[in-house]
Specification:
Helix content: 40-55%
Distance between the termini: 31 Å
Oligomer: single chain
Structural class: alpha/beta
Strand content: 15-25%
Radius of gyration: 23 Å
Number of strands: 15
Number of helices: 12
Largest sheet: 8 strands, parallel
Order of helices and strands: EEEHEHEHEHEHHEHEHEHEHEHEEEH
C-alpha cells in the first residue's frame, strides 16, 4: 500500500486536489481556443476517456473571451494557461475559469501580481506554478551552469514566495523536464520543502511510444514514493490518447480502481491464432464500456493447454488453439469454439456482464 505524502488541498471546480484526494488526471487541448466548437468537442472526448481537469492555452484577448462559453459548457473544470500577460489572467478569471497556470515572476511588476491575486482570491481560484527545465530564468541557468533540479526548485520557491507575500496559498506546483532523471530529482527535492500539491509530468515526452515509457517511469516512480496529487501524461498528437495511459499508471500502482482489467499473454511458439488481433479487438471494446458496479477481468490467452489455468481469476476469457479455442469462466472451460467464433463469443459475454453490472 502506497503511503502518500500529506499535502494541502486546493479545489479546481468540483475536483479536489491534494490532501489525500484521489489523484486527478489532467490534459490540455490542442485546438485553437478561439474555436469554441472544436475545443468543446475535444474536451467532451477527453471527459469520456476519463480526464478530470482540462487546460487551455490563452494566447490573446480573443482566446480569453472564448473562455466564458467554454467554461460554462465544459463537462470538466477549465484551467487557463497564461504566460507573461497579467491582463489575460484577469480576463480569464472574469470569464469563469476554474484555475490558472501562471508563473507570477514572469508577469512583471509587483502590482501586477497583486492584481492577479486580488482577482483569484475573490473567486477562490487556485494557481499552478509551472516550472519547466527548458525555460528556467537566465540567472538560475548561469548560477547552476544549466538546468538542474536545484535551479528548478529555487525557481518554484521564488514564484511561491511572490504569492505567499500577498497572503495567497491556493497553489499547486509542477517541475517538469523532458529528462526523466532530472524531473525525478526536482520533484523529490520539492516534496521535501513544501506541502503544496504537486502536479506530475514529463514535459515534451514525445510520441505515443516513447512518451508512454518516459511517463510511466517518471510519473510512476514518484507516485510509488507517495509523491504527486495530480498528473498529465504528455504525448504528441491527440490528447485523448494520454488518458488511458494515465489511468493505467494509476491502476497498476493500485491508486485507481479501474472497472476493467485486460490480461493477455505475450505469445510464444505455441500460439496458433492471431492473438494480437484478438487482444486489440477486445481492448477496443473494453475502452468503450460504461461504468460498472463490479470490476471486470478479461483474459485473452494464446495457449489452450495452459491459458485457462494461467488466467484462473479472470471473469471470463478465451484461449486459442490450432483452428479452434476455448471459452472459459474463472478458469473453467465452458465451450470449445472455432477460431472465428472466439471473438464474438467473448464479446457476447462482455455485453451480458455490462447488462447486469452497468451503472444506470
Amino acid at each position: 500500500m502506497i503511503q502518500r505524502k500529506k499535502t494541502k488541498t486546493v479545489q479546481v471546480g468540483s475536483v479536489l486536489i491534494g490532501g489525500g484526494a484521489p489523484i486527478a488526471i489532467q490534459s490540455m487541448t490542442n485546438t485553437d481556443t478561439c474555436d469554441i466548437v472544436k475545443t468543446l468537442t475535444q474536451i467532451q472526448a477527453l471527459a469520456a476517456a476519463g480526464c478530470e481537469v482540462v487546460r487551455l492555452a490563452v494566447l490573446d484577448g480573443d482566446a480569453a473571451e472564448a473562455l466564458k462559453e467554454i467554461a460554462q459548457a465544459s463537462p470538466l473544470p477549465v484551467i487557463a494557461d497564461i504566460h507573461f500577460d497579467y491582463r489575460l489572467a484577469l480576463r480569464a478569471v472574469e470569464q469563469g475559469i476554474h484555475g490558472l497556470r501562471l508563473n507570477p515572476g514572469n508577469i512583471g511588476a509587483r502590482w501586477k501580481v497583486q492584481e492577479v491575486v486580488r482577482s483569484v482570491k475573490e473567486q477562490q481560484i487556485p494557481i499552478r506554478i509551472g516550472v519547466n527545465a527548458g525555460s528556467l530564468e537566465k540567472e538560475l541557468l548561469e548560477k547552476y551552469g544549466g538546468p538542474t533540479a536545484e535551479g528548478m526548485v529555487e525557481s518554484a520557491l521564488g514564484h511561491i514566495r511572490l504569492l505567499e507575500d500577498e497572503g495567497y496559498d491556493k497553489i499547486k506546483v509542477s517541475l517538469k523536464a523532458s529528462s526523466v532523471p532530472l524531473m525525478l530529482e526536482a520533484y523529490r527535492k520539492m516534496a521535501e520543502v513544501v506541502d503544496y500539491p504537486l502536479h506530475l509530468g514529463v514535459t515534451e515526452a514525445g510520441t505515443v511510444r516513447s512518451g508512454m515509457v518516459k511517463s510511466a517511469i517518471g510519473i510512476g516512480a514518484l507516485l510509488s514514493e507517495g509523491i504527486g496529487d495530480t498528473l498529465r501524461v504528455s504525448l504528441t498528437g491527440d490528447p485523448v490518447r494520454e488518458i488511458p495511459v494515465a489511468l493505467e499508471i494509476l491502476r497498476v500502482l493500485g491508486l485507481r480502481q479501474q472497472d476493467v482489467d485486460l490480461i493477455s499473454c505475450p505469445t510464444c511458439g505455441r500460439t496458433q491464432v492471431d492473438l494480437a488481433m484478438l487482444a486489440e479487438k477486445v481492448d477496443e471494446r473494453l475502452l468503450q464500456l460504461p461504468a460498472l458496479d463490479k470490476p471486470l477481468k478479461v483474459a485473452v490467452m494464446g495457449c489452450a493447454v495452459n491459458g485457462p489455468g494461467e488466467a484462473r481469476e479472470a471473469d471470463f476469457g478465451i484461449a486459442g488453439g490450432k483452428g479452434s479455442g476455448l471459452l472459459f469462466r474463472k478458469g473453467e472451460i465452458v465451450a470449445k469454439l472455432s477460431e472465428e467464433e472466439l471473438l464474438p463469443a467473448l464479446l457476447h459475454e462482455i455485453e451480458e456482464y455490462v447488462r447486469v453490472h452497468g451503472k444506470g
